[in-house]
């Protein structure tokens, strides 16, 4: 519609101009020399280039740092490079890099991808169009090592395509239950970074690692609205050396069959649920700190559900308890949640778990709660 | 029911769930009161229950309450169809998605043939932008025109629910200016023993989580001490509706040490009188599609700080009527509060005056209603789409979405 006319009279200014850094790209590198030239070229070729690029290299052995430094000399925006003395791992490295970012909006980059030229412009447009949005993430096309399209989308290979295409905005309880995002498809508002940092130590718990992108999503959904864009905004490279892989071709059914066979035989599940519960409690604490009491309560409810799942198979937590919990809607109604409920029923019937020591489980849960707090 | 078929005028039936105090209901009442009486004969149907807003309806608006107890109440549906058909209703103007489903069902079942204009006030865009089968059918088969109070709603209607873009209109809410004229101020300065140099700032918002009082509290806590000393925020709105949230806010006030800056007034039946007594106004909502209250601030001639969450704040951003920081950002809200507190009384008055002028020139309910009347005429086939001359508060949004660059 037509813009409402501005007043011709001199009036106090009510729309302060944006700061010098409006849009930051945060990139973490580790031995990424084979792919970095493609990624950096695609960032330089954006129709809306970033105002700054923050690069944290995790002690690479190859030419990654030299490539970035050479790139810095050729672009009009500021490039800040930091090389870690010791290897932090990608989640800690991202935490450190995010802490150095200055933008109002921060987009995350992985070293091996190829961004489409309108990626940053579209992400920024979504933020400007709707001030309530705290995070935007998109889909991606899968590409092979040479950059050729594989004809598949990232969301579909993770079995989340149908869910996300039905949710233009993604409710926080979905993030609390499942990993839905990949860092390189995301951009967040500054307030998400403020609420998410410092990352809690229990993200690194080997029993249930939570990567930086899932933590950021969880916090973003608790302190704002998360928008899922079905547009593919980058080529997501599939190769053997990548840290966050995808399953393509026959790998997917094989992995699902393997997971199904493990149901009821794994003894790791209770510990994993306890750690997840503690991580959710940590996110709830962040939301509560900024006054998002309602969102914090939602996270605590799901954390409690995770704690209950940890006890499945112990006395009083048999198949009937699982079914009762499902009847109360604690598993949501989507297919993967139905599978989760089925897995818990199977686990509750498994002799391995029925031998479980309730007292030990409770003690472990209490220890995790302490760690979370 | 006293109304007979009025063949000289177009018969309009305004439909809401109830006549309780709420944004959608207020808009429906304001529209009913300002439609042109020479052209339109207006009835008002509350399908579930009456309420206090009935007293605000003009005397010539016939009110019917159907008392339907459930969403899919067959008896209520039949009573509604009888009402529509017996009064020769030409246009049904429904408000709210529950009412939409009810009216559209009657249309899809062939119980009524009147044209249906749906007015969408949905306020939970931050949580839900899906369109289930029921909504898609209701809009595509049971609705002739869609009026969204927010451009994001209009985008949703077209992109997600499949509404015809030619019959989808952005209709920003209007305000009945007469409610804010010649109002007797309620003396809050005396009640709270304010010094002359203290700025009395009102926040009209029930104590519920969408209003995001914690961000306001954190912003006040971040102000320099000299500005805190000059500020008194009075929160006016229903208490006790969300006890856990309210307890969290009260604990936060103590934890942040800002007790002297904040007063919880509670519910008031005279918001216009309270606004008339204030120096400025504030709204810290995390998500709104209106919000109507910002129009009330402008109608009262108050400079304001209101988070940029809805169509009204979006429309007046940068026009000198108030400060519009992003939502859920206490740093930005603190900056805006500080900027307002640092204005001289004359500058504050100029800003408030600019808001009042905008309310009169853009958001006056009579102007908005003239635009809605044009949409009625279009829906009835009495006007061509090319003849629409919509006022500034109405229109369609331009989509400048960045697209891929061709290889």
For the report, how would you describe the main beta sheet of chain B? 8 strands, mixed
Tell me the overall shape of chain B: elongated
CATH top level assignment of the largest domain in chain A = Alpha Beta
- Subunit organisation of the chains: heterodimer
Query: Could you report the average pLDDT of chain B, rounded to the nearest whole number?
Result: 92
CATH class of the largest domain in chain B: Alpha Beta
Please write the string of helix (H) and strand (E) elements of chain B: EHEEHEHEHEHEHEHHEHEHEHEHEHHHE
- How would you sum up the major sheet of chain A? 9 strands, mixed
Write the CATH architecture name of the largest domain in chain A. Answer: Alpha-Beta Complex
Rg of chain A = 22 Å
Give the full name of the CATH homologous superfamily of the largest domain in chain B. Glycogen Phosphorylase B
Compute the CA-based radius of gyration of chain B. Answer: 22 Å
What is the count of DSSP helices of chain A, taking H or I runs of 4+ residues? Answer: 16
Number of strands of chain B: 14
Percent of residues in helices of chain B comes to 25-40%
Structural class of chain A, by secondary structure, is alpha/beta
Distance between the termini of chain B: 67 Å
Shape, principal axes of CA atoms of chain A: globular
How many structural units, i.e. domains of chain A? Answer: 2
Q: Could you estimate the helical fraction of the residues of chain A in percent?
A: 40-55%
Number of alpha- plus pi-helical segments of chain B? 15
Verbal overview:
The complex is a heterodimer of chains A (373) and B (407). With 373 residues, chain A is an alpha/beta fold. Chain A is 45% helix and 16% strand. Chain A has helices at residues 36-44, 64-72, 90-100, 119-129, 154-157, 161-166, 172-177, 190-196, 212-222, 251-262, 269-289, 293-310, 319-327, 335-349, 351-354, 358-372, and strands at 23-29, 52-57, 78-83, 105-110, 114-115, 133-143, 149-153, 186-189, 225-237. In chain A, strands 1, 2, 3, 4, 5, 6, 7, 8 and 9 form a 9-stranded mixed β-sheet that branches. In chain A, α11 (269-289) packs parallel to α16 (358-372). Chain A is globular, with a radius of gyration of 22 Å. Residues 1-13, 355-360 and 367-373 of chain A have low confidence and may be disordered. With 407 residues, chain B is α/β, with parallel strands linked by helices. Chain B folds into 2 domains: 10-174 and 367-395, Rossmann fold (3-Layer(aba) Sandwich), CATH 3.40.50.2000; 178-361, Glycogen Phosphorylase B (Rossmann fold, 3-Layer(aba) Sandwich), CATH 3.40.50. Chain B is built from 15 helices and 14 strands. In chain B, the strands form 2 sheets. An 8-stranded mixed β-sheet of chain B has the order 3-2-1-4-5-6-7-14, sandwiched between helices. In chain B, β11, α11 (292-299) and β12 form a beta-alpha-beta unit. The longest helix of chain B has 17 residues, at 345-361. Classes of the chains: A alpha/beta (373), B alpha/beta (407). At the A-B interface, α4 and α12 of A face α7, α9, β13, α13 and α14 of B.
């Amino acid at each position: 519609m037509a813009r409402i006319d501005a007043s011709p009279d001199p009036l106090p200014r009510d729309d302060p101009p944006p700061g010098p850094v409006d849009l930051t790209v945060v990139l973490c590198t580790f031995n990424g020399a084979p792919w970095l030239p493609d990624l950096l070229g695609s960032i330089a070729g954006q129709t809306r280039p970033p105002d700054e690029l923050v690069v944290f290299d995790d002690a690479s052995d190859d030419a990654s740092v030299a490539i970035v430094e050479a790139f810095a000399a050729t672009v009009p925006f500021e490039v800040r490079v930091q090389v870690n003395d010791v290897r932090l791992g990608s989640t800690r490295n991202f935490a450190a890099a995010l802490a150095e970012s200055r933008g109002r909006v921060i987009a995350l980059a992985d070293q091996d991808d190829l961004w489409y030229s309108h990626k940053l412009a579209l992400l920024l447009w979504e933020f400007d169009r709707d001030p309530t949005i705290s995070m935007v993430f998109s889909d991606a096309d899968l590409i092979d090592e040479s950059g050729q399209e594989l004809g598949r989308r990232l969301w579909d290979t993770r079995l989340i395509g149908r869910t996300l295409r039905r949710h233009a905005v993604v409710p926080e309880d979905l993030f609390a239950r499942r990993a839905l995002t990949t860092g390189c498809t995301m951009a967040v508002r500054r307030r998400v970074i403020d609420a998410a940092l410092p990352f809690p130590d229990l993200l690194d718990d080997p029993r249930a690692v939570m990567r930086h992108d899932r933590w950021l999503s969880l916090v973003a959904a608790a302190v704002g609205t998360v928008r899922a864009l079905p547009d593919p905004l980058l080529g997501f490279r599939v190769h053997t050396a990548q840290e966050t892989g995808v399953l393509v071709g026959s790998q997917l059914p094989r992995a699902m069959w393997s997971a199904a066979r493990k149901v009821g035989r794994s003894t790791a599940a209770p510990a994993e649920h306890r750690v997840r519960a503690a991580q959710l409690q940590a996110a709830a604490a962040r939301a509560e700190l900024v006054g998002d009491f309602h969102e914090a309560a939602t996270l605590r409810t799901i954390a409690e559900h995770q704690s209950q799942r940890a006890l499945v198979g112990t006395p009083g937590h048999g198949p009937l308890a699982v079914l009762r919990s499902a009847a109360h809607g604690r598993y949501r109604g989507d297919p993967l949640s139905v599978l989760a409920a089925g897995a818990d029923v199977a686990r509750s019937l498994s002799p391995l778990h029925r031998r479980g020591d309730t007292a030990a489980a409770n003690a472990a849960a209490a220890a995790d709660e302490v760690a979370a707090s | 029911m006293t109304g007979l078929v009025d063949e000289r005028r177009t018969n309009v039936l305004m439909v809401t769930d109830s006549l309780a105090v709420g944004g959608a209901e207020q808009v429906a009442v304001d529209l009913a009161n300002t439609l042109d009486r020479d052209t339109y004969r207006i009835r008002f149907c509350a399908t579930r229950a009456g309420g206090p807003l009935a007293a605000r309806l003009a005397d010539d608006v016939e009110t019917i309450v159907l008392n339907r107890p459930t969403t899919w109440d067959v008896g209520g549906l039949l009573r509604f169809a009888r009402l529509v058909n017996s009064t020769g209703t030409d246009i049904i103007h429904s408000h709210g998605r529950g009412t939409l489903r009810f009216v559209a069902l009657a249309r899809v079942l062939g119980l009524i043939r009147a044209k249906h204009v749906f007015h969408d006030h949905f306020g939970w865009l931050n949580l839900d932008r899906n369109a289930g089968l029921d909504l898609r059918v209701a809009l595509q088969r049971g609705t002739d025109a869609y009026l969204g109070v927010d451009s994001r709603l209009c985008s949703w209607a077209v992109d997600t629910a499949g509404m015809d873009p030619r019959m989808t209109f952005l209709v920003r809410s209007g305000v009945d200016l007469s409610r804010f004229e010649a109002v007797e101020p309620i003396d809050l300065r005396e009640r709270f023993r304010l010094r002359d140099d203290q700025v009395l700032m009102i926040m009209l918002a029930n104590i519920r989580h969408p209003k995001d009082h914690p961000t306001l509290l954190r912003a006040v806590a971040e102000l320099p001490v000299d500005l805190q000393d000059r500020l008194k925020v009075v929160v006016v709105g229903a208490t006790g509706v969300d006890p856990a949230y309210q307890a969290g806010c009260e604990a936060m006030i103590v934890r942040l040490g800002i007790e002297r800056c904040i007063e919880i007034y509670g519910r008031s039946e005279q918001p216009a009188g309270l606004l008339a007594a204030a120096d400025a106004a504030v709204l810290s909502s995390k998500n709104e599609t209106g919000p109507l209250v910002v129009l009330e601030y402008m109608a009262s001639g108050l400079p304001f700080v209101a988070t940029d969450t809805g169509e009204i704040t979006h429309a007046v951003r940068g026009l000198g009527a108030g400060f519009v920081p992003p939502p859920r950002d206490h740093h930005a809200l603190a900056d805006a509060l500080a900027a307002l507190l640092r204005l001289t009384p004359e500058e504050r008055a100029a800003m408030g005056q600019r808001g009042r002028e905008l309310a009169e020139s853009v958001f006056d309910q009579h102007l908005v209603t003239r635009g809605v009347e044009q949409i009625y005429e279009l829906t009835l086939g009495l006007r061509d789409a090319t003849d629409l001359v919509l006022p500034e508060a109405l229109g369609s949004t331009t989509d400048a979405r960045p697209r891929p660059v061709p290889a």
